[in-house]
UniProtKB/TrEMBL annotation:
<feature type="transmembrane region" description="Helical">
    <location>
        <begin position="20"/>
        <end position="43"/>
    </location>
</feature>
<keyword id="KW-1133">Transmembrane helix</keyword>
<keyword id="KW-0472">Membrane</keyword>
<dbReference type="GO" id="GO:0016705">
    <property type="term" value="F:oxidoreductase activity, acting on paired donors, with incorporation or reduction of molecular oxygen"/>
</dbReference>
<keyword id="KW-0812">Transmembrane</keyword>
<dbReference type="Pfam" id="PF00067">
    <property type="entry name" value="p450"/>
</dbReference>
<protein>
    <recommendedName>
        <fullName>Cytochrome P450</fullName>
    </recommendedName>
</protein>
<dbReference type="InterPro" id="IPR050121">
    <property type="entry name" value="Cytochrome_P450_monoxygenase"/>
</dbReference>
<keyword id="KW-0349">Heme</keyword>
<dbReference type="GO" id="GO:0004497">
    <property type="term" value="F:monooxygenase activity"/>
</dbReference>
<dbReference type="InterPro" id="IPR036396">
    <property type="entry name" value="Cyt_P450_sf"/>
</dbReference>
<dbReference type="InterPro" id="IPR001128">
    <property type="entry name" value="Cyt_P450"/>
</dbReference>
<keyword id="KW-0479">Metal-binding</keyword>
<keyword id="KW-0408">Iron</keyword>
<dbReference type="GO" id="GO:0020037">
    <property type="term" value="F:heme binding"/>
</dbReference>
<dbReference type="GO" id="GO:0005506">
    <property type="term" value="F:iron ion binding"/>
</dbReference>
Length: 156
């Protein structure tokens, strides 16, 4: 029998804001580290940026696309087909709220950014990072975002 919630079991309203601040704050750090490295990857390997854009265009993304969490969920359902513990950012992946929140945030943000901008790296010096920081992020990654005015055609 599936679990059902009784009317008296709602999350206390006085605790909702406090808990949302914790989730959003933790999600910011968790999502910013992979976003930094993903942007590093797409400026280092520009063909990857073109592939992402092509997939978005083929998926039907256009100027009127609403970049909502529901849209981000629909972008890559392949993540559900991965081996259950193939990526463990926190506990054991799919059940971790921090992992799911960060994954949704990264998928939505990266998709919208790549669709709207072409990223180009400024400078070629080696990337430095602080290995003692909780989440390793590049410290000296400088990138220029150029607004797109043309998009690829849909694949045949």
């Amino acid at each position: 029998m599936p679990w059902t919630r009784r009317a008296s079991e709602h999350f206390p309203q006085g605790l909702q804001l406090v808990n949302m601040l914790i989730i959003v704050g933790a999600g910011y750090t968790t999502a910013s580290a992979p976003m930094s490295w993903l942007i590093y990857c797409i400026v280092t390997y520009p063909e990857t940026q073109d592939k992402i854009l092509q997939e978005l265009v083929d998926y039907g993304v256009g100027p009127d696309t609403e970049w909502t969490p529901k849209f981000a969920h629909s972008l890559s359902d392949n993540i559900k087909n991965c081996y259950r513990a193939s990526y463990m950012r926190f506990a054991t992946g799919p059940r971790c709220i921090g992992f799911n929140f960060a994954l949704l945030k990264v998928k939505n943000s990266l998709s919208e950014l790549v669709y709207r901008y072409k990223f180009v790296r400024e400078g070629l010096e080696a990337i430095e990072y602080d290995p003692e920081f909780q989440l390793v992020q590049p410290l000296n990654l400088f990138v220029m975002a150029k607004r797109r005015t043309e998009w690829l055609a849909k694949s045949a």
